[in-house]
Amino acid sequence: MTIRKCEFKNDWMVMMVDESDLSYPTFKNLFEHMGLAFADLENKFIVLDGKEIKNQNLSKDHISAIEAHEIGHFISDHVGVINKSLERLEKEADWAGHQILLKYKKTKAAKLLAERFKDKYEAEITEYDVSGTERYKIQNFLNEVKNI
Ligand SMILES: [Zn+2]
Predict the structure, then answer these.
(1) How far is the CA of 88 from the centre of ligand 1 (A)?
(2) In angstroms, what is the span from residue 58 Cα to ligand 1's centroid?
(3) How far apart are CA 110 and CA 104, in angstroms?
(4) How far apart are CA 16 and CA 14, in angstroms?
(5) Which of 35, 44, 47, 111 is 20 to 30 A from residue 58's alpha carbon, by CA?
(6) DSSP assignment, residue 127?
(7) Which residues surround ligand 1, an ion (CB under 5 A)?
(8) In the chain, what are the domain boundaries?
């Protein structure tokens, strides 16, 4: 298992759980329900499925895209442990994550997220009809990010 700070929010931790970890079977159950990653928004951590990330040969940009999406949930005030069931929340987190990646100039990761959005919802992420409140929350967060 590797633990590090989240690249977009430094009071968040990112854990990558590998197959060799004793706790992997416990997490595996959660990954089966939630996909490659999930976030605990109250305790501020993201757990990544290291085995699947390796199997699918995902790049650092993919991981950045996942992280930005999860932080997107947090900034959008989605509560609890997020799962895939609510499409509106997922779209909102994608949109927020995309904004975060653009702000951090993570162009490749932003592109990956936009492509995934298009595949999944047959729509452009930039045309997503985000609410005014959502836009305001993200703007506030981005304003605090130092210009890089
Ligand atoms: Zn999500």
Answers:
(1) 10
(2) 18
(3) 10
(4) 7
(5) 44
(6) G
(7) 82, 90, 93
(8) 2-144
